[in-house]
Design goal:
alpha/beta; 2-enoyl-CoA Hydratase, Chain A, domain 1; four-stranded mixed beta sheet; about 55% helix
């Protein structure tokens, strides 16, 4: 399938809907899909009729399994492009003026989780943990946490919970997410599509200036911090992938980071 078929787009009334459509690969993102997703976000942001963006995926088992690891492992150049566009997508979602609502019906891993965290509001299906969970597996699979993998959990869950998710690779189900006040709404799976659309329609009825300024003001307050966090991830990843370092070398590098990112 083409990237246009893997990332579906529909603008109807005040709502733009972006649908991830690669169920046979658990909605894992390759470079082309990331680029298409980024282009669709920009298109929705520029559309004068659109006030809200809804992101969802097809099927029931997976929201998204993250990046296409086979593509990353096969070609270093492609891997770098995936990292580049993964950051572009999440940074765009954070900084763009229009509210983004993500509908989560199944399992989310890695970049799939990051997209949910980068969204402004999240609608979840009410399912047991074996059918719906969030997991950041980077430390368990030796994939360095980039494209917002340290920043976004910190923004969403706070310092302690971000460390727990990143250092343990634990699965987090809907009951625990409730305790973290993370879901905006929770609906039965068989009502998820209809109830989410109804919710998004209600949000889109609010005065445009209120919608855009509330998100933008909050983002502007943190924009320098957001950019520096993405840069910090990339800088640490470059050192990690450049070869094994001694404890002394790592210590000196981390000391320099404290000075560079006060």
């Amino acid at each position: 399938m083409s990237n246009q078929e893997l990332i579906l787009y529909e603008a109807k009334g005040r709502i733009a809907t972006i649908t991830i459509n690669r169920p046979e690969k658990a909605h894992a993102f390759n470079h082309g899909m990331l680029k298409a997703l980024h282009n669709r976000l920009i298109e929705a942001d520029k559309d004068e009729k659109v006030k809200c963006i809804l992101i969802k995926s097809t099927g029931q088992k997976f929201f998204s399994a993250g990046y296409d690891l086979k593509e990353i492992m096969a070609d270093r150049e492609i891997a770098n492009k995936i990292i580049e566009y993964g950051r572009k997508v999440n940074e765009t979602m954070l900084l763009m003026k229009k509210p983004i609502i993500t509908q989560v019906q199944g399992i989310a891993v890695g970049f799939g989780v990051l997209m949910i965290l980068a969204s402004d509001l999240r609608i979840f299906a009410d399912r047991p943990i074996e059918e719906l969970y969030l997991r950041l597996p980077e430390i368990a699979i030796s994939a360095f946490p980039q494209t917002g993998a340290t920043l976004l959990p910190l923004l969403a869950f706070g310092f302690s919970n971000a460390k727990r998710l990143l250092l343990t690779s634990d699965k987090v189900g809907i009951e625990e997410l409730k305790g973290l006040y993370f879901p905006t709404r929770i609906f039965p799976l068989d009502q998820l599509d209809a109830e989410t659309l109804s919710f998004v329609k209600q949000i889109s009825k609010y005065q445009t200036e209120f919608l855009f300024f509330i998100k933008s003001m909050l983002t502007i307050m943190h924009k320098g911090y957001i950019k520096s966090c993405f840069d910090l991830e990339n800088e640490c990843a470059n050192v990690t992938y450049s070869g094994k370092k001694t404890m002394e070398e790592l210590d000196e590098f981390i000391k320099d980071l404290y000075k560079k990112y006060p």
